[in-house]
User: What shape does this take?
Amino acid sequence: KYGPKVRVLQERLRKAEQRVEAQKEQASEATFGTVLSVGAAVLGGLFGRGKAGTVSKAASAARGAGRTVREKGDVSRAEEDVESVRAQMEKLKADFDKEVAELSAGAEEVETVVVRAKKSGVHVEGVWLAWAPYWVDAAGNATEAWR
Assistant: This one.
């Protein structure tokens, strides 16, 4: 009853953890790209020749900052998904433990009952004989005769 549910949740947890790692990697790349864009815009403003290029680089850096914020939000949502799946697994475990406790509490003493076979209920298919011969020496030691 609980086995398939546990397997499904384990698979969902594995996929959610993979999404977290992928989102962290994307956020890291976006942060690095933004830092490079800001650096290029600053250096272009200091040493560049035209204002148009500097404005374009600054706008690109601002878009990169927005992308970085979105990627960090994606990481947060992916981590929330992982926590949600873990909470579901904990709830399932608690349900399982509760059901086991209820079954254990309701268990009664086991009574042994001997049921004897009736002659009319016994049907013999065949009879077999197994024989293992031994040699016994004068000292009374037995050795297998078939070896």
Observations:
- Strands lie at 134-136, 142-144.
- The helical segments are 3-47, 51-105.
